[in-house]
Amino acid sequence: MNTVFIVNFVGQASPATIKQLAAVTHENGGKWLISKVNFIEDQVAGVIKVELPEEN
Fold this sequence. Notes:
It is a single chain. By secondary structure, the chain is an alpha+beta fold. It has one domain: ACT domain (Alpha-Beta Plaits), CATH 3.30.70.260. The chain has one helix at about 15-25, and strands at about 1-10, 30-40, 45-55. It has a three-stranded antiparallel beta sheet with strand order 1-3-2, covered by helices on one side. The chain is elongated, with a radius of gyration of 12 Å.
């Protein structure tokens, strides 16, 4: 069985910000179902709906 939850984040944007979040999700067997990410100048804010196997 899988667990679905919502993650939100804000902070300073860098080229690797989104790639790092996706890598952590993938390393734990998860996937992004929906994502909304906005960049304003050097800042980033986003909301991600994530699905992970329950054992993680």
